[in-house]
Amino acid sequence: MTINDRFTRGWIAGVCGGFIGGTFGFLPKYMGISTMNLADWSAILIFGRTPPFSIADQVYAVIVLAGSTGIVGIIFAFLLPLITEENIYFKGWVIFLIPWWMIYLVTALARTEGTLDLSVMTTISNGIGASVSGLVAVYSYRLLDPQSSTAMNYSFGLAQPAAKRTEIQNYGDKDSEED
């Protein structure tokens, strides 16, 4: 599927990245590696209270996280012509890490309850979740891009068979080049 509108393509790509990154964050939390995931940050800011959150709260927080990541996807889509597509995954990764860092900064400065005194593993797992969001968003953006989607359809990272050389047969139905 290709989408010609840069705004829509950026939003959809950002939502895909936010949804995958947000749901990825549940894994370290439920494994006991971290105490908060990216969706918990959204839930604290939305509901104004600290965890634990109900399943409905968590689902809604992931949806809001995906929507806000969609906004970052729109910004990425409009920045892309200015920064070029060379090293697009690195650039997308950096752009999608900026909001993660800003959220940490703002909640620390505001001394938001529930976001202080985090373990190193929590910050690392949230950084990995933000990285997953960014990389998935860039991949989704390229998949939806009319210029790059046709090239990507043929090269999903799998080996492709080499083209065989064939000779053009002259069946006498075309004039020769000498005429």
Brief summary:
By secondary structure, the protein is mostly helical. The protein has helices spanning about 5-25, 25-30, 40-45, 55-85, 90-110, 120-145, 145-155.
List the helices and strands and how they pair.
Blueprint lengths: L5 H19 L1 H5 L7 H10 L7 H29 L4 H22 L10 H25 L1 H8 L26
Helix pairs in contact: 1-4, 1-6, 3-4, 4-5, 5-6
Percentage of β-strand residues: under 5%
Structural class: mainly alpha
Span of the ends, CA to CA: 46 Å
Task: Provide the helix percentage.
Answer: 55-70%
Largest sheet: none
**How many separate domains?**
1
The 3D shape can be described as elongated
| Number of helical segments with 4 or more residues | 7
Mean pLDDT across every amino acid position: 83
Cα radius of gyration in angstroms: 23 Å
- What is the string of helix and strand elements? HHHHHHH
The strand count comes to: 0
* Uncertain spans: none
Structural overview:
66% of the residues lie in helices and 0% in strands. The protein is built from 7 helices and no strands. The longest helix is centred in the middle third of the chain and has 29 residues. It is elongated, with a radius of gyration of 23 Å. The termini are far apart.
